Structures are given as structure tokens and as C-alpha cells.
Amino acid sequence: MSQFHPDLAFIARLIPRFAFGPRLVKFMRRIAPSGGVPRSTPGVSASLRSIPGAGTARVFTPTDVSGPTPVMLWIHGGGFIVGSPAQDDALASLYARELGITVVAPTYRLAPEHPFPTAMDDLYAALTWIHASAGALRVRPDRIIVAGASAGGGLAAGLTLLARDRQEVPVAFQLLVYPMLDDRTVGRNIDGENHRIWNAASNRFGWTSYLAREPGGADVPIYAAPARAESLAGLPPTWIGVGTFDLFHDEDLEYARRLVAAGVPVELEVVPGVFHGFDNFRNKSISKAFVASQLAALRRALA
Questions:
Q1: At residue 63, what are phi and psi to the nearest 5 degrees?
Q2: Which of 264, 262, 279, 268 is closest to 240 using CA atoms?
Q3: 10-48: buried (b, 16+ CB within 10 Å) or exposed (e) per residue?
Q4: Whole-model pTM?
Q5: Catalytic residue numbers, as ranges
Q6: Which residue of 5, 239, 274, 280 has the smallest Cβ count within 10 Å?
Q7: What angle do CA 14, 25, 109 make, to 5 degrees?
Q8: How far apart are the C-alpha atoms of 248 and 178, rounded to whole Å?
Q9: pLDDT tens for residues 15-29?
């Protein structure tokens, strides 16, 4: 049997194999990070901004850059059902500081109270706000990155598809961190013995909450489940990262394969022996290397 990565083997054994449901969602929302004003850090100025037609965004701006910067729209994860942009403040600050870019991390409404397309509507409003407010935000409207992790990665992929099809806002690059792309995965026989954080039962609950129906049906929109898109042509260069013990491993590799077949430049980072969300243990060397791969890909894209 394959083993967990040495950096994470002890941690993996400590993580219980639970499944998300209404009670756990209620608890997770109660302990979620506050949505108050984000803290500035050395080299990065942080603020809270309102988005017309949507909610708010946490904005992280490098302080040592004089001209307009590239901008990243960062979408938090949480299975469509939990989470907030505040949970990723440290990562957003890191991107801003290391890359000299502005990072905009918007809120979006969560399922099951707000099923698809509510979250996508919120995020498209944020994307168009960034583009229209480029002067005020001091960002480059031609250098917009759409990025996210887990369900946020799936939302990022769906948002990039929507931007491609509406042709109103150009997206220069997409960064998809172990993205949740395919509702049909709930109907597949996946060995989940090494799955941690997010397992098959949680996946079914998340997709059912988001779609407001049983996942795997014939009429799920591509902007909800990007893996269902018949054509991936015309999408921007893409970075995808996932671990071998991640529930989304197979669907992420298939999406990368299809992007390449459609002529899209792709960098794929597959990390052996790691589970979903492993990089949240940020002091581990394998997590640092995973983030370093993202930073390197972004530097190349922005060069």
C-alpha cells in the first residue's frame, strides 16, 4: 500500500475520517475566521472593499511597487458550503509580497442556502469590478489571474470558462489548487482509504448542496462543473496542483490532459503521498515546495 509523505504521515494518522453534513457545516461556520478588516503585514497593505452587486473583498497590495500591478482574484475553498476569504489572508499576503501583485479575495454566498449559480454570480461581479476599477485599484486589466483552492479552484475554473464565453474580461492565467471540478466523481468507485479532510461522503454532500439536486445528472451546467465543458479551447495558461491521495486527483489530471489536448499551456504538479489540503500545514517542507511551485509558475506567467 502506498504511504503518506514522511512530512505528513504522523499528521495524516491524527486526522479523523469524518464526513461533512449539516451539523458539521454549522460548527465549521461558527468557528470560521472573522470577516473583519484584514491586517497589513510588512510589505503588504490590506484593506476591505465593497463590490457593487456582490459582497466585500479583502484586498492585499504590495507597498514597494510604484506602478499598476497584475492582479489575482483569489477564491477560497470549503466545498461550496463553508469557509471565508479571511482563512487565506496569510497566503494572499504571501502572493502579494513575493510577486508584487495585488490580490483580491472576495466573499461569495454559500450553499445549500444559496445554490448555483449564486456563487458564480457573486464571483463574476467581483471579476468585472476588478476590470472596471483597474485605475482605482492601480492594477493592470490585461494581467488578471483567476485562482483558488479546492471548491475555490473549481469556482475559479468555472469563472474562467464564463469569462472566456462572455468575452467581457480577459483572464491571463488560472491557478487551480487541487480543484473540485466534476460532480460525476460522486458516482465513481474511488478507494478512499487514504483520503483525509475531504472524502467521498463529503464530496456528495458538497455537490448536492451546491447543485440543489442529486449530482451526476445529465443537465449540470459547465460553469458549475467545469469538467463537463465539451471544449476547453481558448482558456488561458493554467497551473494545476494535486496530491496522489486527494479525492480530486483523477479528475484534476483528466482536466489537465484535456486542456493540453485543446492547445492550452499547462503546468501540472502532482505531489506523491499527500492528502487534500495538505499545504495548510505550512511549516512542512512539502507544503513550502508546493507553494514555491505556484510562485514560480506565476512569475513565468507574469514575466
A1: -90, -15
A2: 268
A3: eebeeeeeeebeeeebeeeeeeeeeeeebeebeebebee
A4: 0.96
A5: 150, 246, 276
A6: 280
A7: 130
A8: 7
A9: 887 789 999 899 999
C-alpha cell at 235: 482558456
Identify the residue whose cell numbers are 458538497. 206
82, three cell numbers: 463553508
List Cα–Cα distances, 288 to 57, 91, 176, 178, in angstroms: 26, 11, 17, 16
| pLDDT tens-digit readout, 107-132 | 999 999 999 999 999 999 999 999 99
Q: How far is residue 211's CA from residue 101's CA, in Å, rounded to a whole number?
A: 34
pLDDT in tens, 284-297: 999 999 999 999 99
Length of the chain as a residue count: 303
C-beta of residue 241 within 8 angstroms of C-beta of residue 269:
yes
Q: Which three cell numbers stand for residue 109?
A: 454566498
